Amino acid sequence: MRRLPDASLRGRAITVDLEGESIPAIEGEPVACSLVAAGEPLLARSVKYHRPRGPYCFAAACSHCLMRVDGLPNVYTCRTPAREGMKLERQNAYPSAKVDVFETIDWFFPKGLDHHEMFAGVPVAEQVMAKVARQLAGLGILPKEAAPASPESRTLRTRVAVVGAGASGLAAARELTERGVPFLLFEREDHVGGRLAHGAPGQDAPSITDVATLAPDSLVTRATALGLYDDEAGRFLVVGAWEPAGVRLLKVYAERFLLTPGGHPPMVPFENNDLPGVYAGRAASLLLRRHDVAPEVAALVGWGEELYGLARLLEERGVKLAAVVDLKGPPPAGAHPLAVAGTEPKAHGMRHVRAFSFTPREGDRRKVACDAVLVSVPVSPSFELARQGGARVTFDAGHGLFKVEADADGRTEAGDVFAAGDVTGGGSAKDAAVAGRRVAQALVGGLS
Amino acid sequence: MSKSMICSCEDVTADDVRHAVSRGYCDVESVKRYTGFGTGICQGKSCLSAVAALLEQEKALKPAAVVPFTPRPPLFPTELRLLATAPVDESQPPVGGLPQDVDIFASALRPEGPLPAKAKVVIIGGGVMGLALAYNLAREGETDVVVLERGYLCAGASGRNGGGVRMQWGTPALLELAKRSIDLMKTFARDMGINVWLRQGGYLFLARTDAVAKRLERNVTLHNRHGVPTRLVTPDAARDIVPGLTMDGCVAASFNPEDGVIFPWPFLWGYAQACKKKSVRVETYTDVTGFEVSGGQIRKVKTDRGDIACDTVVLASGAWSPEVAKLVDVQLPNEPHRHEILSTEPLKPFLGPLVSVLDSGLYFSQSMRGEIVGGMGDPKEPAGLNMGSTLRFVSRFARALMEQMPHVGHVKVLRQWAGCYDVTPDNNPILGRTPGLDNLLQMSGFVGHGFMMAPAVAERMAKWMVTGESDELFTRFNLRRFSEGALEREDMIIG
After folding, report:
1. In this predicted complex, what is the ipTM?
2. Identical fold at A2-136 and A164-264+381-445?
3. pLDDT in tens, A145-156
4. Which domains are present in chain B?
5. Which of B8, B63, B68 sits opposite A46 (nearest CB)?
6. I need a surface site. Which of A164, A186, B250, B478 has the fewest CB within 10 A?
7. Residues 6+ apart with CB under 8 A from A377
């Protein structure tokens, strides 16, 4: 990855401190983005085999980018804005992440290490293993200082609480605004739009709703939903909202909960899918569209419309493509000329991706040089909140995903929980926007 | 080295999932526990769908049986200090909890094969009690045994507890059982071929009041008499044992270095695998629906997979025991009480013992994996089978923990869950024959400490059942005591 020569100036140039080294960064961008753009993609060693890890999802949905940041362990650097002088340390490595002696664990156990049965009941070995395992386990070190208190929590009440300001959440918010129904829309990013803002552009994608057209004070950004609980006063959403003084806990009681959180970029199991240089497709589009950071030569693998959208996006910005491999079957008409159906993808490299190989459906196994493998598959619906609220979640065997069961009006099995967009099983951004609007209409009809 | 990661938080490979399936762990909840996938920082966000798809492709599960594991709050790693700010009305009982339907299992998970038409012994409940008993019966030569479990192994309290094991009890009977259990835990890996990660870092009990301090003082005398090296420690000495501990509001402490923590799940797998090797049947996702009784004896156990004729029935259903007993018109005095618990991000070792403030019911330890695992009783918790999670609990726990360990304020909670204590009027178990229904044996009422008692209780119960030799345990803790009124109350209950 590198910052593109035509990168626009998006903020103040600063430096951050990576284990004593000064690394250039742009103030406010995710610090993991600064690190990969500066040629430092190795951020950590994995918990068991000490495999090298670099950022993967840029969506706080994996653990590859966790670092010790200003003395705090296990911080998602994909969510942490770069600040002048911030201190970054790689975790779980001895003596360093670049040369980690415990990497030998990975080599000694090529077929994996069965912690249930290894040395079970072998005298001495068992006790030694227990001692060693305790020292090796754990990720990060307890902070040295006592934590200052968080800002006081706040209890809010509204008619409709909407989670996620992507295509469907924004469309719903627009509808609620037009109908004069009080609502609060929570978005965990610092910007709205979801994949409209940072995904691969889809066909017929709607434009991003201008937030100025929404009811005043209805949008809360950098606000992460933590759970859908209940107590004596009814059902409430718990949100951790970022404020300059720290994260504040919000308890939000509502008559209806409209869940439009989208999905998580999943890992796809293939050999070395965790090697630094392997990124989720949504991460690649985010880095490119929002931060002008991209690989030199990329191999694309996955399936679905976004795979091809990503190929177009990368080429438009001058990224060379080494391969586009569709794991589900023949590419659709009009797909990128390199696109082929293939199986058995594999990333190659010691500490970073150097090449990618696969078996085309027709022909011999092929290996191509590249500096990034981008995995673009449909997102895994983020069903957790809906499930906590009592909605039914079913497995879609065709797509290999769990999704929230909702009717055309977004009604779920729980009377006050509605869902729209990717969380109900995916589709285009346009579909999501249409669903968001329709669900908002249906939901308003049921309000007293 | 080339590996295909399916859960990169915990370094679980696709082959690890296949290995779990080959061991008979096919449903998502069991595969999660056996492989550890989904238990890391991301809590399944990046891996769950891939594991589910693999299980479906490998035909380990029918599509309708592919159900996600229960998504636990918080949905994002959340600092204890933030959770501590949530308002709590201590004067009111806790209400609700999410998700409410965690213990309802999809019918598609029910095995299709038939149950045996008859068995000598049917054990109801595939928790640690039932499985340990089945294993010990087989060791005593009785292998015509069927264990019935309503969900997956680890679905009940045996899979939901904090893994604490201690000899610091207030009565000799429980002390001796715990002592024997810990001895058996030391050899468990050798006997069963599976690691349980016993770590004897001790239990440090803290007392806030003189009354509780007196209890600890009394214990030291009792424990030392039984060869348990418990000692009273001053607040300063307690701070030496646990660096960073404030001892705020605490007047005294007791410490037994031989207490410890274990990893609960492998006990169930170890016992179950050993049972199967001895051709004892362990039937998961099988629900007991009723009994056939005649002549003061249970003749058949009815299930949703057919009936089993039997000579003896053992009720080892923990907090569900009163409900099962009702099916055969037996009233048990046990009451289920929800106890909530949480687990944090894994950190390098910093905490040796399990620490418990006896007055408030706060307890916390560091697991082998490095997580802080802890809970706290709620004095206002009403009786009832509720395994929902509340914000109230995490808030109360976070405050109480930060009072004793201010350094953990930044530590992030990964998940919270709940299980049910099986509470009896005297905090002691119910064991032995049921008055009026001779072939129904009770094995319940362990008030949150059944896990650590199970190896020893099961050993004695199997011997008592097979040899017929008398054992005072089954008289002392007989159900009859509640009508006869001679109760000796155990007062070393956490929470």
Report:
1. 0.96
2. no
3. 889 999 999 999
4. 5-69 (1.10.10.1100), 107-160+265-334+426-484 (3.50.50.60)
5. B8
6. B478
7. A265, A266, A268, A281, A302, A303, A304, A306, A307
